[in-house]
Design a protein that fits this description.
Elements (H helix, E strand, L loop, with lengths): L9 H9 L7 E5 L12 E2 L14 E4 L13 E9 L13 E5 L11 E4 L4 E2 L3 E4 L21 E3 L7 H9 L4 E5 L4 E6 L3 E2 L10 E2 L2 H11 L4 E7 L3 H14 L2 E5 L10 H8 L2 E4 L4 E2 L5 E5 L2 E6 L3 H19 L9 E6 L10 E9 L6 E4 L9 H5 L2 E5 L11 E5 L14
Parallel strand pairs: 4-5, 11-14, 11-15, 12-13, 15-19, 17-21, 20-22
Antiparallel strand pairs: 1-10, 2-9, 3-5, 3-6, 4-8, 7-8, 16-18, 18-19, 20-24, 21-22, 21-23, 23-24
Helix pairs in contact: 3-6, 4-5
The structure holds ligand LQZAQKY5, molybdate ion and magnesium ion.
Magnesium ion binds next to loops.
Length: 419
């Protein structure tokens, strides 16, 4: 008799999983290699930004007090006594009625407090005249207006995206402490599997899960170490899993986790003495997703069915791996959208439907991405989102507001959509 597994709710399974995540480890990365990594230290302003009062326009630096009373019919003239380009320092303070020609980014003379844009100055041989008064600090980029020395600008645990790279460079971080990336061992199981270059043969299919998971890992910036695939043979599969566990920080397998005669992963966990956190989740697809822990390392037993495998990775492996790197935001980006089709078949389990999310008109919408069974591979390719339908006895009607998860943000639009 097959053992009946008790399903745990997705949230409960996630809590159990996240409670077992090992502490992150840090290493140093050169700034040029830091893009896409997770910060293991906060970015702290080592000086004010800008570090000095500077001109935000090409023009003339003046003392605002000298401009009082200027008007269309009462022009005030200034003598130009110097010239400062970006990177140069002002030679001296300004006297009454004096100005220096100044370029964008150049430091203001010590007692200057306003900048007249070139377009606002009526130039003559000696200098220029203005037609309006300037307030103190008008057209000045103030020291520290962007960031103050000592300020924590980005907390550790955040992703280093191009904006963070700019900030690191601003403060002279030639290198930065980042989370060490876990080494993830990847193997697929199944006697039916063929390599990608092999011709189709009776009863066989090509391994799509291996390359797919490697790509899902790559989307998180995590390289994978492929152990290829093994036939459904307990001893062989056990040896390979054990070797992978010794050589990596975490092992992902696909297939062989259900209750079939050739589903050997449960026996492998037992032989290893691994602690199984859960082996049935109240979700569809991916209900067979199993997570075990061996000597502090995770074993993700993802389903062999491609859609279930994909969803199991995104819902469980993704947040665990990101948290292993100290990420503050390990869960999938979440939003809500209007369902544009009826989805009437009720299901007791939470469904993660591969879906197309759009934000065309006034409201974001979502619709299933076609053939949506757990063995589907085509709908994964068509989807850019996972639509979440809570379990229960009811179906969902067109017009309902549903939760949407967005696994990838790198995908662009097919055309420029702005008039
Ligand atoms: N009696 C029961 N049968 C099944 C149950 C159950 O609860 N009771 N669960 C079903 C569900 S749900 C799923 S999902 C699958 C999970 O199966 P396994 O994880 O054990 O995976 P396999 O049996 O090895 O393969 C399932 C399916 O996926 C194909 N596959 C496997 N590996 C790959 C790969 N690398 N690339 C592409 N496709 C792959 C494989 O050929 C099978 O068709 O079990 C149900 N059964
Ligand atoms: O694990 Mo299965 O995918 O629920 O269909
Ligand atoms: Mg099976």
């Amino acid at each position: 008799m097959v053992q009946i597994r008790k399903p745990v709710a997705v949230k409960e399974a996630l809590e159990l999983l996240m409670a077992h995540v090992p502490a992150p480890r840090a290493e140093t990365a050169a700034l040029a290699d830091s893009y896409g990594r997770i910060l293991a230290e906060p970015v702290v302003a080592s000086h004010d930004v800008p570090p000095f009062h500077r001109a935000p326009y090409d023009g003339f630096a003046i003392r605002s007090e000298d401009s009082g009373g200027a008007g269309e019919h009462r022009r005030i003239s200034f003598r130009v006594v110097g010239h400062i380009g970006a990177g140069q320092m002002p030679a001296r303070e300004l006297g009454e009625g004096e100005a220096v020609r100044i370029m964008t980014g150049a430091p203001l003379p010590p007692n200057a407090d306003a900048v007249v844009m070139l377009e606002q100055a009526a130039e003559d041989g000696q200098g220029f005249a203005i037609r309006k008064p300037f307030r103190a600090w008008e057209n000045v980029s103030l020291r520290g207006e962007d960031a103050r020395a000592g300020e924590v600008l980005v907390e550790q645990g955040n992703l280093i995206h191009p904006g963070v790279v700019a900030l690191l460079a601003t403060f002279g971080y030639a290198s930065v402490r980042v989370a060490r990336k876990p080494v993830v061992g990847l193997m697929t199981t199944g006697t039916e599997l063929l390599r990608v270059h092999e011709p189709l043969a009776p009863g066989k299919i090509r391994d799509s899960n291996g390359p797919m998971i490697a790509a899902q890992l790559a989307r998180l910036g995590i390289p994978s170490r492929s152990y290829g695939f093994v036939r459904d043979d307990l001893d062989q599969a056990f040896e390979l899993v054990r070797r992978a566990l010794r050589e990596t920080d975490c092992v992902i397998t696909t297939g062989g986790v259900s209750v079939g005669d050739y589903d050997y992963l449960p026996a492998i966990y037992e032989r290893l003495g691994a602690k199984v956190l859960f082996n049935k989740v109240a979700m569809r697809p991916g209900s067979v997703t199993t997570v075990a822990v061996w000597e502090g390392k995770f074993l993700f037993g993802l389903s062999g069915n491609p859609s279930a495998c994909y969803v199991g990775f995104e819902i469980f492996a993704r947040p665990a791996l990101l948290r292993m790197m100290g990420s503050r935001k390990p869960y999938l980006p979440h939003t809500q959208a209007v369902l544009t089709e009826d989805f009437t078949k009720p299901n007791p389990f939470t469904r993660f439907v591969r879906a197309v999310y759009r934000h065309d008109g006034s409201r974001p919408t979502v619709a299933p991405a076609g053939f949506n069974k757990s063995n589907a591979v085509s709908s994964i390719a068509r989807s850019n989102a996972l639509m979440v339908l809570p379990g229960g006895s009811r179906g969902f009607r067109r017009g309902a507001i549903v939760d949407v998860l967005l696994p990838g943000t790198e995908e662009g639009e097919a055309e420029w959509r702005i008039p």
